[in-house]
Structures are given as C-alpha cells and as structure tokens.
Design goal:
Length: 453
C-alpha cells in the first residue's frame, strides 16, 4: 500500500517520488508511457540526472518506491496524489493542458470513497488551472469521494534536482482547504525553509513570476553584454560589480547565448499569453523573449565574422544540452544555432558529454557527431562553445590548437580566461568581453559623445 502516488514519471515526477520515498513515504509512480515504466522497473532511469538512478534503485530495493501504468493500482490507496505531467507550449503560446486534463480524469475515476484524497498540482500550470482540475475531479469522481486540490509548484533545476528538492528556498502551497495545505506541508516537515500558504491562483502565479524574473535577469545581463562589447567593457566584472549589491544578488547574471530548457522559454511565453488574454500588455516579458532570441542570432553572426564568412568552413560545436549536467535539449540554443550555421553553408561537427543521443534524433543528418571534444575540434576553422560543461574548461587547449585548421574560439558561455587562451595563440571572442586587453583604451577616446562629464 502506498500513501503517495506520483502521476507522470518524468523529470519532476521521478525526483519528487524518489525524495518523498527517501523521507519515509511509500510511493508509487504512474505513467502512460509503458516503455518508461518497464525501464524503471528494470532499474534503468529514463532521464539523466546526477544521483537519481542510485536513489530510485535504493528506494525500489527497500520496497518504498514502485512504478506502474495502471491508475487503479495506485490512486485508491493513496492519501496524496501529485500531478507531475508535462505542460508543453501549445501553438498559441499558452500551456498545453491536455496531459493535465487526462491525468485529472483518470485520478477522478479512481478516487477512493474510503478516505479523503489530496490532489497536488506540482506541474507548472497557468493561474486558474487548480479550479479546472477541481472541476474535472468533481465530474469524474463518485459522489461520495472526498478530495481537495493544492497547488505546490516546483522550483528545482535540472542538473541539481535532488539537491534543490532536498534544500528548497521555500515551499509554496495554495489551496482553499487549509487543512489539506497543512497536510501537504507535513510531508515537508523535515525541511527548515519557509512555507508560504496562499490561495491557488497566487501559488500558480508565484511559479510563473519566479521563472519570468530569473529569465529577465539573464536577458538583462545579455543586453548589458552587448553594450559592454560596444564600449570595450567586461560584462563578467559588471556582473560581479552589480551582484555584490545584496539587492541585486550574484545569481543568474552570467552573460551568454541566452536561456533554453523546458521551463524558461515556455513559461515566459505562457505568462505572456495569460497576460494578453487578460487585457494586460506584458512589455517586459516580450523584451525578455526578444533579447533571448537575438542572443542566439548574434552568436552565429559573431562566428561568421570571426571566420570571414561561414560558407565552406568547418565549425566544431562543443555542447548541445541547454546547460551543463543534463542530457536535455528542449529549447536548447544549439537547436537554433546549428541549423543557422548549416544554412550559411558551414560544415558542423558536434560533441556533448550527455545529449548526443537526444540531439541525433532532431538535428539534420548533415551534422557530424563526434566521439569526444577533440574529435569535434579536428580540422575546424573555429570552435563554438555552446554549453558550459565542466570538462570543456579542463581540456588540453594546446592539443586542440594543433588539431584545428585555424585556432579561433567563439565562447558563448565565457568558460575560458581570455588572456590565458589568447596567450596560447588562439583568436578568442567571448560574450561581452573586450576583444583584446587594450580594447577599452582604444574605444573610449573614439566615442562621439564624451562618456565622462
Ligand atoms: N523539468 C524541470 O526542471 C521542471 C522543474 C519545475 C517544474 N517543472 C514542470 O513540471 C512539469 C513536468 O515537467 P517534466 O520536465 O518532469 O516533464 P517530462 O516530460 O519529463 O515528464 C512528464 C511525464 O508525464 C507523463 N504523462 C503525460 N501524460 C500523462 C498522464 N495522463 N498520466 C500519466 N503520466 C503522464 C509522460 O509520459 C512523462 O513521463 C511541467 O509542468 C514542467 O513545467 C519542470
Ligand atoms: O546566469 C545564468 C543562469 C542560467 N542561464 C541559462 O538559463 C537556462 C536555465 O537554467 P537553469 O535555471 O539553471 O535551469 P532549469 O533547469 O531550466 O531551471 C529553471 O526552470 C525550472 C523549471 O521551471 C525551475 O524550477 C528552476 O527554478 C529554474 O531555475 C539555461 O539555458 C542556462 O544556461 C544563463 O544563461 N545565465
């Protein structure tokens, strides 16, 4: 018997299930993807996340964590049911709620009449979705079934998901049923962070506002990077300089080629959609997304400039995943950058420590997949760094230089020390970094309007 059901055994579902079972609960995961469930039952984790497969297997061996495709095996016995299904973007930019609706229907049909069930929306759902889930449950459940809906958005990051879930900054619980919200809070009683109790729509909005704010920080610093490049300043020091102000904070100020992943782009778009259908004009959100799109375009233009025209040139691309420590390529900058390089006539060789298999399914066949970072650099006219994997930082650059046709690096993540790399004889271009150490002196006197007064 399990006291918790997790509906949707993807990223969030598996991390939630594994952590809640580690905290002493009996957990069962349900997913409509039978292949995924078969893998999990065979001890294979369908996603790449440091530490997750070990935790899942440990909890499965202890009999605390099981997986099934059958709702009827899981829901009736569970006091808590977490909805963790995907909410991808729909063609109009809003969230596609089909998976949530289907899950709610199945949960409703299987609700126990013996005890109250608390249905927890952990997926990221637009404000108002809690009411929708409640309405579906009412439609589908037997009249005697008692239930409550609680919004409990998740703030974990891929690549550090277990750490984030075990050490949250806060827990947000939104419900009109205070007792139900407190029961969910008791699941997290071992955490020391603040727990915020709100109404459902506020909880749902907190998740979107948090992602929008973080995305805004990234677009902001990328805009500052453009200005830094134009005037010969160094955005890395600008980030440090502003981040030391506690009101600003040091996080999410790394300039680069913009944000990707399964959350920021889709959630910012979904919030923009919610705003637009609610008679609001989301100026900042629109700008955040536009700057992000532009960061990718500008990166390709930079590579083009560095090699003096991409046609017929070979570009070695390091990194496909949307960030380090994941195999996830959803909305990854690489998926825009590589097709654009190809369309400008370049040959593209790629390497990523974890995301090759996922990318192979999506990228054009013309892309050459290499077995390591050195192979991707071989005979390349330029190396484009797209993901900030740790292993790229510690690579033997002297060996890389010997393998390349011309020693040029365009670093979309500012992973290298420009002076060090230039000292090795590379032409090195980063994001928001002066082109050579004396650049600022060269620029300032030439400014048409004096910058000092
Ligand atoms: N990935 C993250 O880092 C992250 C972090 C916080 C919040 N979120 C949000 O959490 C939600 C889930 O994201 P994810 O990345 O885990 O998605 P995912 O695509 O990795 O997993 C979703 C899972 O749900 C399953 N599913 C779909 N419909 C189902 C149904 N009717 N019944 C049972 N299973 C069903 C799918 O087969 C899949 O295994 C999204 O709303 C996302 O925005 C994601
Ligand atoms: O200073 C920074 C920080 C991040 N990024 C990029 O931003 C994207 C997102 O990074 P990150 O936030 O670390 O990854 P996610 O796993 O997408 O996590 C975000 O999205 C999740 C899903 O909603 C939320 O739960 C998390 O709190 C939120 O950080 C990646 O492409 C990063 O390369 C930058 O360019 N500069």
């Amino acid at each position: 018997m399990s006291n918790i059901t997790i509906v949707g055994c993807g990223y969030v579902g598996l991390v939630t299930g594994a952590v809640l079972s580690k905290l002493g609960n009996n957990v069962i995961g349900v997913d409509i993807d039978s292949e995924r469930i078969a893998k999990l039952n065979a001890g294979i984790c369908p996603i790449y996340e440091p530490g997750l497969v070990e935790l899942i297997n440990e909890q499965s061996r202890n009999g605390k964590l099981r997986f099934t495709t059958k709702y009827e095996e899981a829901i009736p016995d569970s006091r808590f049911v977490f909805i963790c299904v995907n909410t991808p973007p729909s063609p109009h930019g809003g969230a596609d709620m089909r998976f949530v609706r289907n899950a709610a229907r199945e949960i409703g049909r299987n609700l126990s009449v013996q005890h109250k069930t608390i249905v927890i929306n952990k997926s990221t759902m637009p404000p108002g979705s809690g009411d929708m889930v409640e309405a579906i449950l009412s439609e589908e459940a037997q009249p005697e079934a008692e239930f409550a809906v609680v919004a409990n958005p998740e703030f974990l990051r891929e690549g550090s998901a277990l750490h984030d879930m075990l050490n949250p900054d806060r827990i947000v619980l939104g419900s009109k049923d205070q007792e139900a919200a407190e029961a969910v809070a008791s699941l997290y009683s071992s955490f020391t962070c603040p727990i915020l109790l709100t109404n459902i729509r506020t909880a749902e909005m907190i998740k979107y506002a948090a992602n929008a704010f973080l995305a805004m920080k990234i677009s902001f610093i990328n805009e500052m990077a453009q200005i830094c490049e134009a005037i010969g300043a160094d955005v890395r020091q600008v980030s440090t300089g502003i981040g030391l102000d506690k009101r600003i904070g040091t996080y999410f100020l790394q300039a680069g080629i913009g944000f990707g992943g399964s959350c920021f782009p889709k959630d910012a778009q979904a919030l923009e959609y919610v705003a637009s259908i609610s008679d609001c004009y989301p100026r900042i959100l629109k700008a955040v997304l536009e700057v992000n799109r532009e960061s990718r375009r500008k990166f390709v233009t930079k590579i083009d400039k560095v090699v003096g025209g991409l046609y017929g040139k070979t570009v070695g691309v390091w990194g496909l995943a949307f960030k380090a420590n994941t195999d996830d390529i959803r909305e990854a900058p690489a998926l825009d950058i590589i097709p654009e390089l190809l369309s400008r006539g370049a040959n593209v060789k790629v390497y990523d420590p974890a995301a090759m298999e996922n990318a192979r399914r999506i990228l054009p066949e013309r892309v050459s997949f290499c077995e390591n970072a050195y192979a991707a650099a071989e005979n390349a006219h330029v190396l484009a760094i797209v993901t900030d994997w740790e292993q790229f930082r510690s690579i033997d650059l002297i060996k890389v230089k010997k393998l390349m046709t011309t020693s040029k690096i365009v670093d979309g993540r500012n992973i290298f020390d420009p002076e060090l790399v230039r000292g090795l004889g590379f032409e090195y271009v980063g994001i928001g970094i002066p082109c050579c150490p004396s650049e600022s002196e060269r620029y300032l006197p030439q400014a048409s309007v004096p910058i000092w007064h």
